[in-house]
Amino acid sequence: MGAVARAVLWTAVAAHLLLVEYLFVRYGQGKNSLLTAGKFCGLHLASVMMLQLVLVARLPWLDRRIGMDRLTVWHRWIGFGLVWTLTLHFTFIVAGYADLAALSPWDTFLSLAGVTASLLGMVAAAIIVVVASISVRYVRRRLPYEAWHALHLLIYVALGIGLVHQAMEGTTFDSTGATAYWWAVWALVLAALLTGRVVLPLWRNLYHRFRVAAVVPESDDVVSVHVTGRHLDRLPARAGQFFIWRFPGHHGWWRANPFSLSAAPNGRSLRLTAKAVGRGSAGLRAVPVGSRVFAEGPYGAFTTIHQSRPASLLIAGGVGVTPIRALLEEPGGPTTVLYRVHTAADAVLLPELRALAKARGAQLHVLTGRTGAGDPPNVPFAPANLAAAIPDIVRRDVFVCGPPAMTDAVVHSLRALGVPRRQVHAEKFSLA
C-alpha cells in the first residue's frame, strides 16, 4: 500500500513538472536570458510550494499509506530546497531587470520594491526565509513545540501573499490554456489543503463532540486522558495512530500536541497517554473532566494494515510504548514485545502490557539499564543481541516507536540483519 501511494504521488509530481517545463518552453520566455531563468525558477518555486502543501494537507489516503512522520520529513527537506529555489528566482529577476535598465543590483532592488506586485513577492520571500530559519534543527530543538508550531503557521501568510503576487504578475505563460492549467492545479492543491486541514477536522469534531471523560495519573510525570463522544464507532481510527489534541477550555485553541492512542479504539472512548515534557503535556493532569476536546485525526501509517507476515515484533522506548500498547490489543499471530526503559520504575503502562501479553499469549521483555553501561556493554538493540533474542526476526514484521536515537539504532540493526524494508514499520516518537 505504501509503495503504491509513493508511486502515485511522485508520478503526479513528475508529470506536472514535465508539463510545466514544456509549457514554459513554448509560452514562457522572458525579455532576456536572466529573466527567462528567473521565471523558470519562479515556476519551480511555486510547484515546490504546491508539493509542500500536499505533503501537509493530511489527506487520509496518503496519510494512512505513507504516514505523517514520513510526509513531514519529506516536507522538511523539500522546504530547504524551496529556499534555494527562491534565492535563485530572486537573484535572476533582480539581475535581469538590472541588465535591462542598466542599473546596479541595489538600485534595481529598490525600484522593484516600489512596484506592488514585486513588493508582495519580497514580503512572501522574507516570511519563507524566517520559517526556514526556525526549522533548522539547532533552532527547532530549542523552541517549545507550541512556539515553533505558531511561528510555522506564518507560511500560510506567505502562501496568500505569494498567490496575490502571482496573480498580479500574470506574465509567465503567453497562453490562455497554459494559464488555465496552472491555476487549476493551484485550485486543486488549495482544495486538498482546506479539506484535510479545515473541513474534515471541523466536521468530525461537530459530529463526534469529543469530551474529557477521565484523567488518570499513571506516574509522577505521566497521565492518561480518556476522551468520549458521539458515534465513536464511526471514527476511522486504528491502534497505532495518533491525533493532534487541543483542550480549548484549558489550554486555549493555539496550543496543540500530537499524542498517540494508548489503547485500541473500542467505539466508545479514546485514550491518550502523555509524559510531561512541555507546558502542553504537563498541564494535562489538570484538564477538567467534561471539558471540550478538539481532536484532529486519526493520523499515521503505524498500523497493522501494513503487516505482511503473521508474526510480529513490537519494540517500544520510553513513552513511545503508547502506540505499541495499543497495537498489542490487535489480534494476530505470534508476538514479542521489547520494552526499553532506564529502570523498571520508568515502564509506563507495564501492568496493562503484562495483562495483554498474557491474554494474547505474547512474550514481553522489559529491557533496563543505560545503553553502553557495564561489561560487556549494555546494547540490547545491537544486531547480534536482537538476533539472539528473536531468532526468526527476518520472518516477522517489526513495529518500533521511541526516541529518535533508539528508533534509528533499531532500524539500522534490522537492516544489518537483512529484515526486508517492507517488514519494518518505524515511527519516531518526537512526531507521534
From TrEMBL:
Domain of life from the UniProt record: Bacteria
Major localization class: membrane
Membrane-spanning parts: 7-25, 37-56, 77-98, 110-136, 148-168, 180-200
Record InterPro entries: FAD-bd_FR_type (IPR017927), Fe3_Rdtase_TM_dom (IPR013130), FNR_nucleotide-bd (IPR039261), MRET (IPR050415), OxRdtase_FAD/NAD-bd (IPR001433), Riboflavin_synthase-like_b-brl (IPR017938)
Bilayer topology annotation: Multi-pass membrane protein
Cofactor(s), names only, from the UniProt record: FAD
Pfam families (alphabetical): Ferric_reduct (PF01794), NAD_binding_1 (PF00175)
Assigned keywords, A-Z: 2Fe-2S, FAD, Flavoprotein, Iron, Iron-sulfur, Membrane, Metal-binding, Oxidoreductase, Transmembrane, Transmembrane helix
Domain FAD-binding FR-type: from-to ranges: 205-305
Keyword Secreted tagged: no
CDD domains: FNR_like_3
Compartment annotation: Membrane
Full protein name: Ferredoxin reductase family protein
UniProt organism field: Phytohabitans maris
